[in-house]
Structure formats: structure tokens, C-alpha cells
Amino acid sequence: MRIVIAEDNVLLREGLILLLEDVGHEIVAVVGSGPEIVAVVGSGPEIVPTLLEHRPDVAVLDVRLPPGFRDEGLRAAIEARKLIPGLPLLVLSQYVEESYAAELLGQGASGIGYLLKDRVGHIEEFQDALERVAAGGTALDPEVVSQLMSRRDPLDALSPREREVLGLMAQGLDNPTIATTLFITERSVSKHIGSILAKLNLPPSDSGHRRVLAVLAYLNA
Fold first, then answer.
1. For residues 34 and 41, what is the distance between their CA atoms, to the nearest angstrom?
2. Measuring CA to CA, how many Å separate 130 from each of 17, 37, 44, 134?
3. Mean pLDDT of 77-84
4. I need a labelling partner for 108 at 20 to 30 A (CA). Which of 69, 78, 114, 136 fits?
5. Beta-strand (E) ranges in 22-118?
């Protein structure tokens, strides 16, 4: 995969580069500086032009970047998705910021990931999330999901097991993985998902699209 990284923390940036190159990915542009960097971008406003130039398979963006260290990365991600529809984006954040996750997914959940930076240290989890997002899937950090689970209405209508299933759906996991995680059959997972979609009053559609709608309803509950 061809990857653009937007990260101002030198240690994390270099760690990401080493990790991704070690598993065979190509880093085509990095926010920051270094001898192996093809394109150098020094601030949030420069991210979108870089993405437009390189058209990567996936971009890994920090939420907070220079010059303001507020939400420059998030703004760039949202703008980039408008200019390059379907561009896979994996956004990293130091803390759980539910509003950022909701705003990002509000642009469409396909090819979107939102992880805490601590998750990068879990190499297999990070790699799985990156590949899932690049393939058009969704990857939400379990901590984000956990905080969203504390919300009420309309999730009150769901049973405890249905909330577990929806939480794993929100992380972007497929039915077989959900079944393995919860030690239930795939048939049971399908039944729970059908019940969840009905209770959330989601319109009938194809399975993949309804999953996206379920995640968005989950975030906006």
C-alpha cells in the first residue's frame, strides 16, 4: 500500500514509518521531516494538497497538528474526503474525543478509522485496522466504543448482548470475528444484527450499507 502519514510527534512518526515499512508498505509522504521522506508537509493546511498530489491507498492523520494543534488533521480529513470521495483515512488521537469520531464518520463510515495513539503499539491490531480501512471497512478504537456505550436512548431498546454485538460492529469487525469474540455462532450474530437494525429503525438495504447506518446511529445516539 502507498501511505501518507501526517504526524508531528517525531518519535511516533518514526515509529510508524519503521512499522509500516517493515511489513512492506510504501511511505510516499510524511508530515514532518527526515531523509527518507518524499514530500514534506509542515502544517495542517498543507495536508490536503499532499493527498491530492499522491492519491495514497490510505492516509494516517493525527487529529491535532500545527499550527494550532486543535483539529487541523480532522478538518483536513473531512475536506480530503470531499475532494477525493472514498479516500481511506485512519485518524489517530491522543484521547477519546467522541465529537471528532462522530463528525468524521458523519461523512460516511466506509474506509474510515479512528484509533487512540496507544493502539499503534499493538502492532497486529494497528495493522489489522489499517488494512481494514484501506479495504473500505471501518475501524473504531475499543475505548471510543466503550464511552459511546454509556449513552442512552435509543440504545436502551437493545439487550445487553445486542449492545455487545453493536459495539463490535462499530469497531468494524465482521460476523465471523464477532462470533469468535463472543463465543457464539455466526447464525446467532446474524439474528442479533437483524434485531439491532430493526430496533434502531434503520431502513431496509444491503447488509454492508445497513452496517454503516447502524454504526452512525450508534455514534449519534
1. 11
2. 13, 20, 21, 6
3. 91
4. 69
5. 26-31, 40-41, 58-62, 89-93, 112-116
Question: Pairing mode, if any, of strands 58-62 and 89-93?
Answer: parallel
Q: Which residue's entry shows cell 442512552?
A: 152
What's the rounded Cα separation, in Å, for the pair 35 and 32? Answer: 11
Contact yes or no for 199/158 (Cβ under 8 A): yes
Pair 85, 95: CB distance under 8 Å: no
pLDDT-derived band at 55 (thresholds 50, 70, 90) equals: confident
For the chain, the straight-line distance linking the first and the last C-alpha, in angstroms and rounded, comes to 35
Q: How many CB atoms sit inside 10 A of residue 23's CB?
A: 11
Neighbours of 60 (CB within 10 A): 28
In angstroms and rounded to an integer, the radius of gyration of the C-alpha atoms of the chain is 18
Taken in order 129, 1, 102, 194, is the CA torsion positive or negative?
Answer: negative
Q: What share of the chain is helix, strand, coil (3-state, %, to 5)?
A: 55, 15, 35
Q: DSSP per residue over 146-200, as a string?
A: HHHTT--TTGGGS-HHHHHHHHHHHTT--HHHHHHHHT--HHHHHHHHHHHHHHT
Q: Is the pLDDT of residue 176 over 90?
A: yes
pLDDT for 209 beyond 60: no
